[in-house]
Known about the structure:
single chain; mainly beta; four-stranded antiparallel sheet; 27 strands
Amino acid sequence: MSNQCSQAMESGPLLSLIASPGGDGGSCVFTGGLDGSIKRFDVATSTVSVVGRHSPETIHDHEKVACSCLSPVSFSSSESTLNTPVLASAGWDSFFYLWDIRAGNASSQNKPMARIKLPDKAFSMDVDPSSSSSSSGCRLVISTAKRRTCIIDVRKASSVVVAEDGNQEYMAEMVLERESSLKYQTRVSRFFPNGSGIAVGSIEGRVAIEFLDELNVSSNGKKKYAFKCHRVGDIVYPVNAIAFHPKYGTFATGGCDGTVVTWDGLNKKKIYTLPKFPTSIAALAFNHDGSELAIASSYTFEEGEKDHPRDEIYIRSMLDSECKPKGMK
């Protein structure tokens, strides 16, 4: 038996969605809409509330204000002054925000805790999963237009400034901004499970493995490189999704060719190609132990308007042989 519920968020198309990052029992879902809104849906009560916005209440057709990225943020370091449940957002308005998402927190309702100007509109964001480490537990990577990659350290959100409206805001720090090693637009960026580097996918059917030498993060002697993927003959398909296996550190990629492929990125090896899906792969996510992979099969309009298969989500059991590095005991 399964329980289902649905809710119209009235935000236009939803570009981002995450489960509750903590503090309310995991009973809430947060969404980012094309209208720039960030909303909370309480599953238990079926109520919707506004957390904040990447735009004014009234917008014009020419404005690009969408909330395109959401990530939960964990503050495990004693250096941080931000110890409440926090949601990070980034959008087409070229801003990064931190939001206090405690229910009933009227003092900060619709007011961000922190704000950073990005080099351009955001396409992808990920939080460093190595949150148990005080040196890297609160880093985020954001990929923007014009092939920029930004690393934001929210542990350093301790200097208080006064906003134009007289309210105090915390300013997180952008500790690194650089150009992607790939030549074309970035679609997705994801941290390694240990936080030592990032995997970057682009519209050119390539994935780059990059490290964070500028931040003195050890790469264990590994050098950055890129490889081709999601290509059929001379046709090149965008890489839309990357998901790291939580146990083995390998990763899966999903592309507009409708395939999912697993890789051993550190050893530069392809592991396995899953049977082809009906249409483009829009998103991927492993469960907590890597035994299952959620796969969103959804046409991403890379060929414009046309008839296409319906949107579907698959949950696939993953064998060790499909995820484990070859030669690993």
